[in-house]
Specification:
three-stranded antiparallel beta sheet; 394 residues; 14 strands; alpha/beta; Deoxyhypusine Synthase; globular
């Protein structure tokens, strides 16, 4: 207590409450703080989504930080040889955003997708023409359980329809070999190709769009959802061992970024939410040492929207700048971060990007395919690279 009192006493009050504006040195020191005035945002009829974000950039607080996320994303797409990774968590597919992600892929606003298997399960359900339904949060969940109705906050899902995915996955697995392993990304790629030609397809989705365009879908926890527990059930029923190899996927992800940089490009990340998808994408640079690639420049954009607070110490809330210390981002990284929910802004950002590039047809910066033996072949700058052979791993 005495120490506190002593310190407090030493911090004596200033001699004056305000400076003398007649003092030139005082005026000069103050001036930099007043160079960029906040502009009042005035909506008007006919504004495009892009114009709204441009106006928001001149505001302050969360209005400005959200605008910074959009503007950084647009800037990435304007740079030559710039690859955009999108990592996304949360129940965005049941909430209606599966086709939004499809649009981002189709317009080449994202080149790589990292997400959870739960959302791929929901996507498979929608690809098959099944739907999700509006609900209320004021419901009897015991009654829903009895009736086989799943609830995702204010959305219902039909568990009976979801369960029929089991037979679809089993049918798909009959097209796979049990004499070799598959990375989760290859599994989802081949599933998307198969669905595009399948009698089960009733709509387009993330799986089908990604496979058609060669957008890799990386998944950090492949067994953590029905789409792969269905695979486990297939093993139990058939006795066939279709095996996923997430270890090779980690190498493929690092090799993908190496191929991008070796072709003269750079990669940046847009993170929506946090969790495992965020770290999975970030470690694709942090683990460059596995290929003896200390020369990789790391991600040059860190763009994110998250509700997770930084002070808990968890990765979901950690700042992009903190990620530099883990060798995930470059010293020259452009950082744009907004604290908030991402699903509403994602719809707005997608619309604004469509406005910004309405007369420009972006070309894919990178795409992938899988050879019959499971090798990931990357096309970057028009050249195919067998990354497993190029970077020397099994």
């Amino acid at each position: 207590m005495k120490q506190y009192e002593q310190q407090n006493h030493q911090q004596s009050a200033p001699d004056r409450l305000a400076g003398d504006v007649r003092d030139e040195s005082y005026r000069r020191e103050r001036a930099p703080y007043f160079e960029s005035p906040v502009e009042r945002i005035e909506p008007r009829p006919g504004m495009s989504g892009r114009e709204v974000f441009q106006a928001m950039w001149h505001g302050g607080g969360p209005v400005r930080t959200l605008a910074s996320v959009y503007l950084a994303w647009e800037e990435m797409l304007q740079r030559p040889s710039q690859v955009v990774w999108l990592t996304i968590a949360g129940a965005y597919v049941p909430f209606g955003l599966g086709r939004t992600i499809g649009t981002l892929m189709e317009r080449h606003f994202v080149d790589v997708l990292v997400t959870t298997p739960a959302q791929l399960t929901h996507d498979l359900t929608e690809v098959r023409g099944r739907r999700h339904y509006h609900s209320s949060t004021e419901v009897d969940d015991d009654e829903l359980m009895r009736l086989d109705v799943n609830r995702y906050w204010n959305v219902y899902g039909d568990e009976q329809a979801l369960n029929t995915n089991d037979d679809v996955i089993a049918e798909f697995c009959e097209t796979l070999s049990d004499r070799r392993t598959y990375t989760p990304s290859e599994f989802f790629y081949r599933l998307g190709l198969w669905l595009n030609q399948s009698r089960h397809k009733g709509a387009d989705g993330m799986l089908t769009t990604a496979a058609r365009l060669g957008v890799p879908i990386f998944c950090p926890s492949p067994a953590d959802a029905d789409i792969t527990s269905d695979l486990a059930h297939y093993r139990k029923r058939s006795g066939r061992r279709i095996v996923l190899d997430p270890i090779k996927e980690a190498l493929d992800m690092v090799a993908l970024n190496a191929a991008i940089e070796d072709a003269g490009g750079r990669a940046g990340i847009v993170t929506l939410g946090g969790g495992a998808p965020r770290n999975y994408a970030q470690q694709a640079m942090a683990c460059a040492y596995m290929l003896e690639r200390a020369d990789l420049k790391r991600y040059n954009y860190g763009v994110r929207i998250s509700l997770d607070p930084v002070a808990t110490g968890g990765l979901s809330g950690s700042t992009v700048s903190e990620g530099k210390t883990w060798k995930k981002y470059a010293p020259d990284t452009v950082i744009a971060e907004h604290f908030g929910e991402f699903m509403g802004p994602l719809v707005q950002i997608t619309q604004a990007l469509l406005d910004a590039f309405s007369t420009t047809s972006l070309q894919p910066r990178v795409s992938i395919r899988y050879a019959t033996d499971g090798r990931m072949v990357v096309t970057v700058e028009g050249k195919e690279v067998d990354v497993q052979k190029e970077y020397g791993y099994a």
